[in-house]
Amino acid sequence: MTTAEIEKDTVTFRIPTKKRTELDRVAEELLRDRSFVLNEAVNAYLDTKLWQIDHIENGLKDAKADRFASTRDVKRAYNGQ
Q: Quick one: which of 7, 32, 47, 66 is 20 to 30 A from 74 by CA?
């Protein structure tokens, strides 16, 4: 599927004027439009948040299965050993 074939929706939201000015500056410097920059920002945000959610869920599964790090392992990780 090409980029042109991907279904797209329009989303409207409000941001402070200063942020929109900064957004437009970034878009101009990148020779891109505002939508491109916003899509890049949303992708980065979603990647980070979904990564966090996955790790939290995995941690909860480990905790429910009584899989914990030993005190020794925690101390070694904390001390960088």
A: 47
What's the per-residue H, E or C state across the chain? CCHHHCCCCCCCCCCCHHHHHHHHHHHHHCCCCHHHHHHHHHHHHHHHHHHHHHHHHHHHHHHHCCCCCCHHHHHHHHCCC
Q: What is the pLDDT of residues 8-63, one digit of tens each?
A: 999 999 999 999 999 999 999 999 999 999 999 999 999 999 999 999 999 999 99
